């Protein structure tokens, strides 16, 4: 039997495996399997995903670029963690750029896409738990931006969503009955403005929606002191 080709072929295989590891680890992080501040050890990830350290390192680089993890040279990688001040700053950025991204997106959204947003609003109201709600909420908001054709703004918003994912989970768990009602009402108002193609109203609703999350989190500094978000 001839020896397996080295070099480019091996690098292609590592790249494919690295993408698989990145996909699976990304899903685990977004679903709260690894709380903020958790250290990620390459040898443990390699064993878990059945890969060598080369694709694991590639996966970690990918997830760092997406805002999900933080790496320190010659030290290691950790699930991204924010202080209260950092989270407030990121939410203030979101308040300003997500309405703009929505404005770019709305003229290009088809009726079928808007119908799907309406369905997602109903599914969020019927969500059985926090994780199901978060998945639907992410699909709703990122889906509302799907019409935008941007090379910078869209990826920036998605990175901000990744970085603040754990804190949306904490926010959702803080909501009482009134808070839940307001949250769903805002989703209904937002999709109604999108259907009417009223960019000004949609921007106003979205800004207030994000701002309310920021203010609620700012009132609960204990969220940022917890070691375990699960």
Give a description of the structure:
GO terms for molecular function: DNA binding; DNA-binding transcription factor activity. InterPro entries: GntR_C, TF_FadR/GntR_C, Tscrpt_reg_HTH_GntR, WH-like_DNA-bd_sf, WH_DNA-bd_sf. Residues 15-82 form the HTH gntR-type domain. This protein has 230 residues and is mainly α. Helices cover 68% and strands 4% of the residues. Strand 2 and strand 3 form a beta hairpin. Helix 4 (84-105) packs antiparallel against helix 10 and helix 9 runs antiparallel to helix 10. The chain is globular and about 50 Å long. The termini are far apart.
Distance between the termini: 51 Å
Spatial sequence of strands, sheet with the most strands: 1-3-2
Low-confidence spans: pLDDT under 50, at least 5 residues? 1-13
Helix content: 55-70%
Give the structural class: mainly alpha
Could you please say which CATH topology of the largest domain applies here?
Answer: Four Helix Bundle (Hemerythrin (Met), subunit A)
Shape, per Cα inertia axes? globular
- Report the top-level CATH class of the largest domain: Mainly Alpha
Features:
globular; mainly alpha; 230 residues; 3-stranded antiparallel β-sheet; Four Helix Bundle (Hemerythrin (Met), subunit A); GntR family transcriptional regulator; DNA binding; 2 domains; DNA-binding; Arc Repressor Mutant, subunit A; disordered N terminus; single chain
């Amino acid at each position: 039997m001839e020896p397996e080709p080295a070099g480019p072929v091996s690098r292609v295989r590592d790249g494919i495996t690295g993408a698989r590891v990145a996909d699976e680890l990304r899903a685990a992080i977004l679903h709260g399997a690894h709380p903020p501040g958790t250290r990620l050890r390459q040898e443990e990830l390699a064993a878990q995903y059945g890969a060598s350290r080369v694709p694991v390192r590639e996966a970690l680089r990918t997830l760092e670029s997406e805002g999900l993890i933080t790496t320190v040279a010659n030290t290691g990688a950790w699930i991204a963690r924010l202080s209260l001040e950092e989270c407030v700053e990121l939410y203030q950025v979101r308040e300003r750029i997500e309405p703009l991204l929505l404005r770019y997106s709305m003229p290009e959204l088809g009726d079928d896409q808007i119908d799907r947003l309406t369905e997602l609003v109903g599914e969020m109201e019927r969500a059985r738990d926090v994780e199901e709600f978060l998945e639907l909420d992410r699909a709703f908001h990122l889906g509302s931006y799907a019409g935008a054709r941007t090379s910078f703004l869209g990826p920036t918003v998605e990175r901000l969503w990744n970085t603040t994912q754990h804190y949306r989970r904490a926010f959702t768990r803080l909501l009482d009955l009134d808070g839940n009602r307001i949250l769903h009402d805002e989703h209904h108002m937002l999709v109604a403005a999108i259907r009417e193609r009223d960019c000004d109203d949609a921007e106003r609703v979205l800004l207030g929606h994000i701002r309310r999350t920021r203010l609620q989190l700012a009132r609960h500094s204990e969220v940022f002191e917890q070691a375990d978000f699960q």
